[in-house]
Write a structure and sequence with these properties.
10 strands, elongated, alpha+beta, endopeptidase fold (from Nostoc punctiforme), 327 residues, six-stranded antiparallel sheet
């Protein structure tokens, strides 16, 4: 008589044998199929197909890496353009990732007609995206000192922020529409006109600092506002050829950005940035560490230590054909 305990063991052993037989059969079928394929097409063809598949995989990986790198570069460029107008705290927190990029090199020896390859945040509703051409002019500029025959067209000019954008991204998208494309920070000393502007500003020490006094012609009521002081200094230093904007937040849109390590007499140091509206204060440098301070209202204009930290330094362009750093 067969013991009940032996029956499960026999069934388990039988299942094991059947499974092993199935695996063995599958292997034989696979080997046979493989042999048939090799016999039909040959090893050279199989190796060639494998090489093509590996190459395609590598191309896809490289393409993905390049795309991610380009997105990172675009994001960094947009943040740089924004911080050059609104300060580090705004530019470095903007969430925008899709921005314009320059499709060809920028010619410096002629009026640029470079087409920008633009991907808009959200197309402007009133104007279509266009490529503008800067033209030389012999008349004094009244809005910006940096629009000249070597400045590339601003590719952000017709961008508007999407409705879902956060406050900083919206502020950045609005800010970069104005002014020139900002190139890398200058690391070279300023010129004689900058030194003349610094001297003119230095001569106003002792006058009263107010909100609105002064003009390009000189002080009014024995006083200057900070914005009007730098307007006066550059207007007089250039013989009336350069007229900076009247508002500090607009003045930062003009000229070339300067590395803080290269501050020279005449450079404009912007600070006291608002959350989304740009700077509210400006000093004109007279040395790498000192500047003319007309920012303390109802106090005498004085020589003060230049601020550090969240500052943006700009150098107004004073030469009609001055080269613009490549963005």
């Amino acid at each position: 008589m067969t013991s009940p305990d032996n029956e499960p063991r026999r069934q388990s052993a039988l299942r094991g044998l059947l499974g092993a037989a199935a695996v063995q059969g599958t292997r034989k079928v696979a080997v046979s199929a493989g042999s048939a394929v090799v016999g039909a097409v040959g090893w050279p063809v199989i190796l060639a197909v494998a090489a093509v598949l590996i190459l395609l995989a590598l191309v896809l990986v490289i393409t993905a890496i390049v795309a991610l790198s380009r997105m990172s570069d675009q994001q960094q460029n947009f943040a740089y353009q924004c911080e050059s107008r609104l300060g580090y705290s705004v530019g470095n927190t903007a969430a925008l990732a899709v921005v314009p990029r320059l499709a060809t090199s920028v010619p410096f020896d002629q009026a640029p007609s470079t087409a920008w390859e633009t991907t808009a945040l959200q197309p402007a509703t009133t104007t279509s995206a266009t490529t503008t051409t800067a033209t030389p002019t012999s008349t004094p500029t009244t809005a910006t000192t940096s629009a000249n025959s070597t400045s590339p067209a601003n590719p952000y000019a017709t961008l508007t922020p999407p409705p879902t954008a956060d406050a900083n991204t919206t502020a950045c998208a609005n800010a970069v529409r104005n002014g020139d494309v900002v190139g890398p920070p200058l690391t070279t000393p300023g010129d004689e006109i900058g030194r003349q502007a610094a001297t003119l500003a230095n001569n106003q020490v002792g006058l009263l600092a107010t909100d609105a006094d002064g003009s390009t012609a000189g002080p009014t009521n024995e006083a200057f506002s900070a914005a009007n002081l730098v307007r006066y200094a550059y207007y007089q230093a250039t013989g009336g050829e350069v007229t900076l904007p009247k508002d500090v937040a607009q003045q930062i849109d003009t000229g070339d950005r300067v590395d803080p390590s290269a501050i020279s007499p005449g450079d404009l140091v912007f600070f006291n940035f608002t959350p989304t509206q740009g700077p509210t204060a400006v000093m004109i440098a007279i040395t790498p560490t000192l500047g003319i301070d007309a920012t303390t209202v109802n106090q005498p204009i004085a020589v003060g230590v230049l601020p550090t930290g969240n500052i943006i330094v700009k150098r107004p362009r004073t030469q009609t054909h001055q080269e613009v750093p490549t963005p």
